[in-house]
Design brief:
Elements: E1 2-6, H1 11-20, E2 28-34, E3 43-57, E4 69-75, E5 78-81, H2 87-90
């Protein structure tokens, strides 16, 4: 599973998580929530037994008109529908 997004302040959280666990990762369940900015209901997926494989940040070029992209590649056993999100959980999203 390859996840991409624009690089932001919380990219440091991903880097720290990878660094803190780089010597012994345990497969874990990951929930991905795609928030509909138009106000529709969010879509969620659950990734079972996920392990990070690769993480990268595209080089930022101040002279270019492109945003910097962060990519996280995960090895997963299965992908399924996630649990519905509450508005409380969504309020914690950056």
């Amino acid at each position: 599973m390859i996840l991409t997004r624009t690089t932001g302040a919380d990219s440091q959280l991903v880097k720290d998580w990878l660094s803190d666990n780089s010597h012994s990762f345990t497969p874990t369940t990951v929930t991905i929530t795609d928030v509909d900015l138009a106000g529709g209901p969010p879509t969620t997926w659950t990734l079972e037994d996920a392990l990070p494989v690769k993480w990268s940040l595209a080089a930022f070029d101040a002279g270019a008109s492109k945003v910097a992209i962060e990519t996280l590649e995960l090895s997963v056993q299965s992908v399924g529908p996630g649990s519905p999100c509450s508005s409380r959980a969504l309020s914690r999203l950056p």
